[in-house]
Amino acid sequence: MVLRISDEKRVRTITLDRPDALNAFNEELYDAAADALLAAAADDSVAVVLLTGAGRAFSAGTDLLEMHARVSDPAFVPGKHGFVGFLDALADFGKPLVLAINGLGLGIGATMVGFADLVFMSTKARLKCPFTSLGVAPEAASSLLFPQLIGRQNAAWMLLSAEWISAEQALETGLAWRLCEPDDLLAEAHRHAEVLAARPISSLLAVKRTMTAPHRDAVREARERENACFAELMGGPANLEALTAFAEGREPDFTALPPGW
């Protein structure tokens, strides 16, 4: 199993459970996480979802070894939902979504913050959007949601630089709502989730719907723009160099790429 699920006081805790891979999303985990969100959305006994990670990472993003296979192996078989289906489940999730970011979050481990309603972070956690270091484009409507959430220049640095953002920076910019000591993180996030879960589910749904409805079309359009750019760049010279370097355990060298790349 790549997920653990537990229920307490109308809060469903979903724990990403590939600790040996730093909870990187392979097709199996994307499918399982999408199914878990869809099931929670349909379950009248669940008021709030709390999402966290097992081990020392929240999520290291998309599994790069599997990404390399996707672009290089004609026999690669995608999952039922995959990355796009997981994003659909996040974007359509109508109940409060609380993140407890227990460790490093890369790629989707960072960009899913844009879909969260409350974000708690360990003081030891950090976030990174590695898109330019992988030779690809942003994802998960982060090109829209991050400027809205943390301002244009903070978002520009995070999306363009592929540099780490500390927990303190996340709090200062608005990516995180609360910082907690590592041993206190899950309990504190769950305590706040329980406050929400004690309210009428119908009212929670109405509040979230009215907050997200004005942005739904813009989120869809941002994802379409990002997907088009991602498809154009994935498998290109910069992306192949990045993935090959990762597989070979070295830093990528983009200096020898063709002009324009």
From TrEMBL:
It comes from the Bacteria. InterPro entries: ClpP/crotonase-like_dom_sf, ECH/Chromodomain_protein, Enoyl-CoA_hydra/iso. It is found in: Peroxisome. The chain crosses the membrane at residues 97-120. Its main location: other. Keywords: Isomerase, Membrane, Peroxisome, Transmembrane, Transmembrane helix. The keyword Repeat does not apply. PANTHER family: ENOYL-COA DELTA ISOMERASE 2 (PTHR43684:SF1), PTHR43684. This is Enoyl-CoA hydratase/isomerase family protein.
